Amino acid sequence: MTVGSFVFMLHSHLPYYRKAGMWPFGEENLYECMSETYVPLLNAISELYEEEGIKAKLTVGITPILAEQLNDEHLKNGFVEYLDSRIAAVSKDLERYPDPKVEHSQHLKYLAKYYFDWFNHIKDSFVNKYNKDLISAFKKYQDLGCIEITTSGATHGFSPLLATDSNLNAQFKVGSDTTKRLFGKKAKGCWLPECAYRQGYEFTGKDGKKKWRPAIEVTLQNNDIEYFFTESHVIEGGNSVGNRRVVGIYGNIEYIPLPAREETGYDTYSAYWLPDAQVAVMGRNDRAGFQVWSAADGYPGDGCYREFHKKDDKSGMNYWRITSPKTDLGDKMLYDPVLAMNQVNSNSDHYTTLIYDLLKNYKSQKGKEGLIMVSFDTELYGHWWFEGIEFIKQVVRKINNFIPEIERLTAGEYLEKHPPVDTIQIPESSWGQGGHFYVWLNHLTEWMWPIIHGCEKRIIDIVSKYEKIPEDKLLHRALNQLARENLLLQSSDWPFLITTWQAKDYATERFQEHVARFEKIADMIEENRIDDLELQKIESIDNCFPVIDYRVYLPIEEGVIPQQEAKLAPLYV
User: Fold this and answer.
1) What is the pTM of this model?
2) Mind telling me the catalytic residues?
3) What domains lie within the chain, and their CATH numbers?
């Protein structure tokens, strides 16, 4: 007898870093996540399956723009160079410790050896086990049924604020096609960038007629996407994410809620159909999610775990532990891997018990089995929470071996086995501050959106003149590169990083660079003076989506509907 189902979803995303700086923002951010998160995650999935016969049953979202970077030869080679630099740096620590002038230097030598072995193991895994091909490795475990891979918008564009359906469709069509090309099968599920959703709405067109703009799920269905994920408050109503501090890939962020909505009467223990298309949505379980996410109460903040922010001034190694949230960086205690692993064991015991109790209590109260879906940024595990991958591995193992009453399923498997019964209308929403769009549209970022919308209109106008692929190969290349730059300038990472001040100048510069490249190519096309060398230069930097078809931007006709009062005020007309 089962008590219910458990879906563990990991959303993997980084902005496009290729040839766009190294440190503190740029390629090294990708290499850190590859070494601390993506390779260790693959190792955990592999070890569970090949050594213990356990299928992890993780739902692993990999955004198309991240997948393209993991598949890129320049970045693969750069990752090996990065690992070699880390090994060289920690090797010098092995030479300088023990030092009688340095307190606890014997323990520092022990930690240096620990990292020396750790980095060498990551390199051996990447080079010898996975042949520098993480995409093929993820595909292998997908095909074995260990994981399910989901897609997203091509460059993680903020869907609700795009002005045209052609551009919205392009994000998900290019994204879905990229996932199929790299992983061998079309993804059933999707991570909405930033969990950002909007309903359909009526608006008055320039011709004075009432028109209808479809809801986001219509675009998803048009691209054969069957489900996506959202936040708990979107399903349940009430307060949004609330006045909490949570840990994420961009560090600690404070969320300030909008006024509470009325309770909907729905809960996150089921998946639901959306009203405008045959697309399902499942909400994150608040209790199970924040047990990990919460910076105050979540596991990653335990004093035994490795301190992310303090690094050795010579080698850059993280030799310290959190100690306590109130401890100054200068007073942190040295890291103890054995102590940390003991704490992982304790936390995974607590978490598996929590999942069981939540499902059991729900079944007792409702008389039916429920769903617990938890979703996290993959980079939380390993990169921010160094011990997090081991936590995932232990949670999977313990549920499999000791709590068979919990049905471990990927998201697609759950929906196939337990299709939704009810339909729910969800509101405009995101995971960001207040559960709305503020993080991406505010006084710091409002200047970006007229530019984005201008590029949306311009690419549609240009592409409309070339419904047939031109015989001129130079022109064809230019049209495809124009499409790439348009996708890249739409990345939601740029306004997000500006708002949070995590990388304000870098994000502003990156956005402006892609806009400038877009406009340069558009000018060359419109003026019939395409510079081959200049185009090659741009192509050598922004080479993602190699088989893109610019015709994805051919205009989509909006349906005309009878005059009636608008259901929602349009975001942009």
Assistant:
1) 0.94
2) 194, 377
3) 4-435 (3.20.110.10), 448-542 (1.20.1430.10)
